[in-house]
Amino acid sequence: MEGAILVTGAAGFVGSHVVDLLVERGHGVRAVDALLPAAHREQPDYLNPEAEWLEGDLRDAAVAERAVEGAAAVCHQAAMVGLGVDLGDLPEYVGNNDYATAQLLRALAAGGFAGRLVLASSMVVYGEGRYACPEHGVVAPGPRMAADLDAGRFEPPCPRCGRPLEPGTVPEDAALDPRNVYAATKVAQEHLCAAYSRETGVPVTALRYHNVYGPRMPRDTPYAGVASIFRSAFAAGRAPRVFEDGGQRRDFVHVRDVARANVLALTAPEPVPGAFNVASGTPRTVLEMARALAAACGAPPEAEPRVTGEWRAGDVRHVVASPELAATRLGFRAQEDFAAGMEEFAAAPLRD
Asked: Which residues contact 227 (CB under 8 A, 6 or more apart)?
């Protein structure tokens, strides 16, 4: 591939691993990051010196134009993640995720970009995962009600008969149903990129990450993932608080696997457009993950995970994915062992 591959959000959790893997495989890399205080309290010490680094905010049209100049392919990782604090975060999420993406796409179109675009999307676009009712088959449950959550009724019922549902794996052709601000911005990113692709013919691959964990995760903030929140608690000698009853099912996928999925999409002999789940294929409950991390951290009994029954607005109960389309089309299957990954994560420093 001639020319550099542009990686946005390149100093971040996933982006930095993508940069490292591209450099390792001999690709030229232009790396751009705004180093926003919400994500980086200080400049990370792991930035790959073999990449060309550009510090700047993609919301600035001049930065976007400089970033895309001469790019052979684009890996768009830059985004605010997590549930955030409250609706006061809404403008920042929309600005950093959607307006920045719009500026990037405008710059690519203006510059006649003819490569391929890989977008970091998320399983949050699905809302709740795939459910089946014994009577009505596959159904889409509505948002969970506060009264039910307060009463400890965490499982969503069938919207037609109220019976318990059986959770399953969600495929890429499931209807999108964002249930919080972050999710809405990720759906918008996918739609913006799809519109850009239709107008320009540039192939777009959207990788819907499931719960990513591993080295370089940020410390415990409202914008961090559940694994880093638990890891921060263990590091401080505190028992992590496991919300609801801990039975929420997720798919925890190692960041090196996620980086490999990106590099496959960026460097396949021919572009592989479409949306793909990036997942391990092995669902676990949040409590199972917390206990595995506790064992890896050597947490004392007083720091064992504590189920609290608390809940967060905008959270979903179960969302796990089928990894088969990514395996068939991209040649991607997760390789990292969960137990070994937890051991590594337990010992790795968290990002400031």
From this structure: 211, 213, 217, 252, 289, 293, 345
